[in-house]
Specification:
about 750 residues; mainly beta; 22-stranded antiparallel β-barrel
Amino acid sequence: MRKTIFALSLLSSVFAFSQEKQNNAPKEKQIEGVVITKTKKAVEQKADRTIFDFSEQPQLNNGNVLEGIKKLPGLVATDIAGMMYQGKVLEVYLNGRPLNITSNDLNSFLEGMPANSVERIEVITQPGAEFPATSGGAIMNIITNKNANKYLTATYSGNYSFTNYDKYRSRTTNSVNLNARNKYFGWQLNVGQNYRESMLNGQQDELLTSHTNRYGRGYFAKSGLTFDLGQDRLLLNYDIYHNNNDNYTLSNGHGDLPFNNDPADLREAFYTSSDVAHTNNLRQEAVVTYQKRFADKSQKLDFQFGYTRSDSKFSQDNFFQDGNFAQSPYLPINSVQNGLKDILNNKSVMNIANFKVDYAQPVKILDGGKVSFGGLYEKQDYNTESFGLTNLKYQRQTASTYLEFQAKLKKFDFTLGSRAENYDISGITRFIKDKKVVEADLIPFNKFKLFPNASIQYNMMSQVNVSANYNRKISLPSISALNPNNVTFSGPSTEVNGNPNLQPTIFDNYEVKISAFDYAFIGYSVSSASNQVAQIIRKDGRKLFNEQVNISNMKIHNFNVGLPIPFMVFSKPLSEIMKFNFNPDKINFMYLYAGYQKHEIDNLNNKGFWIFNIMTQIILPKDIKLTANYSYLTPKAGYFYFTAEKPFNNSFDLTLTKKFMNNRLTLSVFANDIFNGQVMQVRSNPPSGEPVMIYSKYDTRNFGLSINYKIPTKNKLAKEDTNILNQTKKEDNGGVMQQGQ
């Protein structure tokens, strides 16, 4: 039996399987007052999105959010080129609002958020007209809210894990979620902290080899109030996220250093250096939402005002740097043996304010339909500073409106809409040239554009359909890509810069998909992008340059398929299985996912790559659940301007879960990346300059224990509060915590 389980586990993957709550799950009350039993599925396929439930899946929620996201099938997440899902570049949202950060800043933010604070993740592959056109190729919406209950309920979640490479390192997360409602209002408070020690080994060609000890400390608090005003509802939300990280790096390098402290006299040298980098990020969000409701429950009018402020500080200090110059008389490097403070000292401040209106009502179109329309005004200011010099002032104003129709005709569902957006982007950049401050205007972007979308779905039979989708979107350069300051480790051989003159990317997205029973699917999509933002790493002499550029034209092709296989197919006839009303949470099965992706870039011959995910669930004695996951991405393939010399994904994970105390207590024991195969090694293919080999290895192999405990209260018969905050365009979800789009 052990050999059988182990053999099946080797086939496992990161795909989140479809599961229902047990039969004794609590009942939810719909808006109309009809009480139904609500099932929760771990993965759900819809016409325009895929929904992954995190709350019930220990293999996803036992670490930080970034670790859980990397286990989602079809998703590729790298340090060098951001995130993509099934061939689409992702815009990351938190509770329906864009984070406006990418790359290293995004990874740090997600690393600082415990995965057990996430309720679910929606990957919206076909954003309709009601979503901002700036959603780009697709949206990954991370939803952290819980439902509010009458009286008081409380849930504690904790996690401990460790790694043991060159030394023992610990990681802990703790959070408490409180919900309550009285006859006047409902409230929710979710607070948590995390502490993580980790390792990063890196290599940048032959110019730099580094070993970094990373210490991360994060805190968050999410609060919400809801007031029922007759049929209407007022929601108030305030969230705060704080991360304070220190990275201690010991490096060996080969580069050009100042001779006799003369910056104008650079000479080849071999050196050893010890540095520390400090990162301090604070993000605050406040949202006010008023929901007007009518006698017809499908008629809605929402008003929302939101404000976000994000402050970031980054500095780097040098403890010592020594070595020798490479040419005779091979003099020692002794000018900085005592170290230097503030090699880098950079700050940034982002402020975003927006106001939006959304209205929807049913209309008599064909066999029935709905019309939605609304508008959004948003203003963003982003300033960066280096050593007291404000070197970027970026301003953006966006005004938009949309109109979308949905209709049915026999077995067909239709969606047709368009969004109009007007952009006014301007700013200035400052830099030092010949010891003087030079000021220049950014390339302005003042344009009015239309973004149409259309989809058609043919319902062949119950829960089996074929759909075709098209939409045009735009992606504005993220603030981290615009930032001219370096906010990563800097050595004498490395120069990292943002590009304040990046231009927006225009996407045309096409997709055809067949879906069956919410679980199985097969699809093909292509995204055609103009001015795609990409990272370039090149070498010039003994200097590495890390830059952001626009690709004039690019296409991303993606084919993907997902298929669940219950193990009972090997012991029961198919006719009997089709009649069997089973609970996926109680059976042994496997979920298979495969995807093929190819990047077409002018003057670059990129090969495509395959993504494989296999997940296996086995129910052991005493209702212990074994979940095994394996993910793999084929190497020697092109990913933007990089070729993977080793697979981005190559990880095998195991999780054992047991519920106690009438399901109030859930314990999980886990082991991630058991074979220590997760590593990134790529070779750049820059349009100019020499190619570069980049290698990085995190301590991804870790072991730990997670706990989720629903603290008992006296309100055993308390019912869940009605959820009417519009999260998706097809249905109402949500709770006290804000989920506006």
